[in-house]
Design goal:
Elements lengths: L5 E6 L3 H11 L3 E7 L2 H10 L6 E4 L2 E2 L2 E2 L17 E5 L4 H10 L3 E4 L4 H12 L7 H15 L3 H11 L4 H8 L3 H15 L4 H5 L2
Helix pairs in contact: 6-8, 7-8
Length: 201
């Protein structure tokens, strides 16, 4: 008896990644389509008769933020499919953002193929698949992050990306002094002494 392949949509802004994944997964998964942007993904979703068993999603899609697609109304037939993030970022802030946005799993592009395939199987079967050390870290730090307001969350995320105070101020459209004041509050709320400790959270 032939087993039915699980179905997959790949969303990544790099053509070489999309084509490479499609070729690699061809024997085990039916790739229903690929997209490089959120608009392309929505158009693809609307064209499908049925949602896929899994969405493999990159975080940064050019100017788009990949996590914004989770829960999108383009799937009018049934629940939004489970999402497995496949990203170059391995820091806590990005993995935490994926978890908070509703992703069911996270694999770094530096991990090997076996780990990716195992995570795909788990997430498509209704399980969670996050790096164990990151889940433990999430549990330890989530209480501290709960007390942050929207601006503080944004600054925390940018600090985790390694951006300077000047870069953060420019992106947020505020003064450098404002960022410095917000960082002082962040240190108090998170129990960190300085920027280096905040980056390592």
């Amino acid at each position: 008896m032939l087993l039915t392949m699980k179905t997959l949509v790949i969303i990544d802004d790099h053509d070489v990644v999309r084509s490479g994944l499609t070729a690699m997964l061809d024997k085990n998964w039916q790739v229903l389509g690929t997209a490089a942007t959120l608009d392309e993904a929505r158009k693809l979703f609307r064209s499908l008769d049925n949602p896929p068993d899994l969405i493999l999603l990159d975080l940064e899609l050019g100017k788009d933020w990949g996590l914004d697609i989770i829960g999108d109304k383009s799937f009018e037939r049934g629940k939004f499919p489970p999402v497995l993030v496949f990203s170059v970022y391995d820091d806590f802030a990005h993995i935490n953002a994926a978890l908070r946005s509703g992703a069911k799993g996270y694999v770094c592009k530096s991990q090997d193929t076996a780990e990716l395939l195992a995570a795909m199987e788990d997430v498509s079967s209704g399980k969670f698949s996050f790096p164990p050390d990151m889940l433990q870290r999430h549990a330890l730090t989530s209480d501290k992050l709960q007390g942050l307001n929207k601006r503080e969350h944004t600054i925390f995320f940018m600090v985790q990306q390694g951006k300077t105070n000047k870069e953060i101020a420019a992106e947020m459209g505020v003064t450098l002094r404002t960022i410095e004041n917000n960082l002082s509050i962040l240190y108090d709320k998170t129990g960190t002494k300085d920027r280096k400790e905040l980056e390592k959270m």
